[in-house]
Amino acid sequence: MPSVIAVTGASGRVGGRVARRLADRGVKTRLLGRDPARLPDLPGAVRAAPAPYGDGEAVRRAVDGADTLFLVSAHEGPDRIQDHRTAIDAALAAGVGRIVYLSFLGAAPQATFTFARDHWHTERYIEARDVPHTFLRDSWYLAGFAAMAGADGVIRGPAGDGRVAAVAHEDIADVAAAVLLGGSEHDGAAYDVTGEEALTLAEAAEELSRAAGRPVRYVAETPAEAYASRAALGAEHWEVTGWVTSYQAIATGEMGTVADTVRRLTGHPPATLRAYLAAHPRSYAHLLP
């Protein structure tokens, strides 16, 4: 078992859950987050000062004394790859000897989903540093289905009839904890972390309808319609492109992968969408009649 694990994104939905699982196992941690006030107060945890990924010296100080780094990817942005590189170099300079990186399913240089390309470049950078590492390539979050639906009960996007095997934050955290605690047996591995049911957005809308007690439906858009419908949001082009291509990646089949990683590494099956909605009614509160 590693002596100290640095957990980034520890105030977030994956990093926070990982930190709690490690604390439950008696592991000492260093917790990093954008807002230290939101970091959990856990046994054996040191809450670090703010350490943006692009600030190498701040990251080095924050992870000093840790031998393993759980690296949750930075929020999307035009400098994301460079920020990752800076954080990785800082962690290695601080003496970190192992990195577990939360990547994304289908990470590739020409992935349809543009943000998945950032993950591919980050993976290659870690490999080139010649440090023991593991990549966790998670699918869409189950929470994302409800988030995609507007208050009008409509999911819009150019996903066609493609499928996505979405996964719960809890299951990702369970896998991450198993890998972090498992040691060298996971070195060099790249695990696809998915649910075990691959749904179309129309099928996901049916489950949301069942949970919310009102009709929820999927309306397919063309890519041009998708860009136009999001233009009024005022986001930058790179961000809108990421949103639209996430749906297109479903249409191309790049998100339909179904892996047994959750079951194999944790000993339990991943949550289904129906089970997730039953356990998290707040996720679809905006859809209630």
From TrEMBL:
<keyword id="KW-0560">Oxidoreductase</keyword>
<dbReference type="InterPro" id="IPR008030">
    <property type="entry name" value="NmrA-like"/>
</dbReference>
<dbReference type="Pfam" id="PF05368">
    <property type="entry name" value="NmrA"/>
</dbReference>
<dbReference type="InterPro" id="IPR036291">
    <property type="entry name" value="NAD(P)-bd_dom_sf"/>
</dbReference>
<protein>
    <submittedName>
        <fullName>SDR family oxidoreductase</fullName>
        <ecNumber>1.6.5.2</ecNumber>
    </submittedName>
</protein>
<feature type="domain" description="NmrA-like">
    <location>
        <begin position="3"/>
        <end position="222"/>
    </location>
</feature>
<dbReference type="GO" id="GO:0003955">
    <property type="term" value="F:NAD(P)H dehydrogenase (quinone) activity"/>
</dbReference>
<dbReference type="InterPro" id="IPR051604">
    <property type="entry name" value="Ergot_Alk_Oxidoreductase"/>
</dbReference>
